[in-house]
Amino acid sequence: MKLIIPMAGRGTRVRPHSHTVPKPLLPVAGTMIVERLVETFIRTMDRNIEEIVYILGPDFGNPIKEPLQEMSARHGAKCTFRVQEIALGTAHAVYCAQKDLNGEVIIAFADTLFDSKETFNVDGADSVIWLKKVEDPSRFGVAVYEGEKITGFVEKPAEFISDLAIIGVYYFKDGAKLKKELQYILDNDIKGPGGEYFLTEALDRMIQDGKLFKTATVDEWLDCGTLRAWLETTGFIVEKEAYNLVEQIEALAKKGTMIIPPVYLAKNVTLEGVTIGPNVSVEEGCVLKNSQLSHSIVREQASLEGCTLAGSTIGAHTKLTRVDGEIHVGDHSIISME
Asked: Given its phi and psi angles, is residue 315 left (phi above 0), alpha (psi -120 to 50 degrees) or beta?
C-alpha cells in the first residue's frame, strides 16, 4: 500500500520557522511531524506501508528531500517525490501524484497528527475517511453519515449537519478511481469556496457512483498548523510520552539546574543554572545557561544565555542573550539585548 503525503504548502502560519524548513519537517519532541504521522500509520493500520510519496513544492531541494529519504528507509518504505508547482486546492495537490494513484492508497495531509488505540481495518470498503468529533463543525469539512456508512460531505457548513470533522486522512481501495474523479474536477473547472479544487468534491462523486465509504474515528487529533498549535501539541506529546528524566534531574541539580516536568531533552544538551519546564522541548546540541524557560520549543544547536522565556519558539542554530518574554525567532538568528 502507498502512503501519499501532500506537503507543498508554505506553512505561513508557522513563520518564521517555515522560511527555512517545511512545516511537516518541524520537530515535535525530537521527531519530525511527518515522521510521527508515518509512525501512527505503521502502528494503527492493518496493512504495510510499502511506499511513501511526498508531494513537494517546486523549490524543495536536497536539504528537504534527504531527511525524507532517510526517514522512509528507517521504516522500510520506498521513497518517491512529486511536485506541486502551484497551490490550487486539496484535489489538485493529490492529483500531482497521479502516477502513483493506483491500487490501495492512503492520502494524509501533513499538518495534523492523530492517534488511536485501535487498529484500523479497511476490508470491505471502497474508501475510509478518518473523522473526529468537534465542538464547532463550521470550521471544518464534515461527513454526513448513517451508522458507519458515509452518505455525503459538506465543506464548512453554516448550519449544523454533522459534528464529525474530516481530519485529512483517507483510504482508497482503488487509487485509479480517485484519479479519474480528480481529473474530471480539474477538466471541468469545478471549484469550491475560495476558488480552489476540493478533494471532497471527488469523494461526493464516488459516493454518487455507489462506492461504499466507511468512517474511522480517532481518539486524538492534534493540530500543528500555527505557532500556538505547534506549542500546544508539543506540550501534549511531551506530557503523554512522559520522558524519564530522573537521572538527568539529579545530575543537573549539581549544576544549579531545576527541571519541572514534563520536559523533553534531546541528546548532547548542555544546561547550566537553568530552570526549565513545564512543557518544554529542547532539541539536540542546545546550550542553555542562566535562563528560565517554560511552554517553549528550542530547536537544534540553539544557544540561550541569561534569558527568561515563555510560550516561545526558537529556531535552529540561533543565539539569544538576555532576551525576556515571548519570542518566535527563525534559524541562524542572533539577538542580544542590553
From this structure: beta
| Cα–Cα distances in angstroms (integers) from residue 91 to residues 1, 6, 11, 131, 314, in the given order | 20, 10, 18, 18, 34
**Between the CA of residue 281 and those of 76, 112, 114, what are the distances in Å?**
28, 18, 20
Distance CA 281, CA 264 (A): 5
Q: 144-149 long-range CB contacts below 8 Å, 24 or more apart? A: 145/215, 148/214, 148/215, 149/212, 149/213, 149/214, 149/215
- DSSP E strands: which ranges in 13-50? 27-28, 31-32
Closest CA to 132 of 113, 119, 151: 113
Cα(277)–Cα(234) distance, rounded to whole angstroms?
A: 13
| Domain total in the chain | 2
Residue type, 206: M
Contact 26, 239 (CB under 8 A): no
The model's pLDDT over 87-128, given as tens digits with 9 standing for 90+, comes to 899 999 999 999 999 999 999 988 779 988 888 888 888 999
Q: Distance between CA atoms of 311 and 176, rounded to whole angstroms? A: 45
Query: Which of the given ranges, 45-59, 250-264, 294-308, has the highest pLDDT on average?
Result: 294-308
304 and 181 share a domain?
Answer: no
Of 176-185, 263-272, 306-315, 318-327, minimum mean pLDDT range? 263-272
The verdict on 255 and 282 lying in the same domain is yes
Label residues 105-131 b or e (16+ Cβ within 10 Å = b): bbbbbbbbbbbeeeebebeebbbbbbb
Q: What is the CATH number of the domain that holds 277?
A: 2.160.10.10
Same structural domain, 162 and 248: no
233-260, pLDDT tens digit by residue?
A: 999 999 998 776 766 776 777 778 899 9
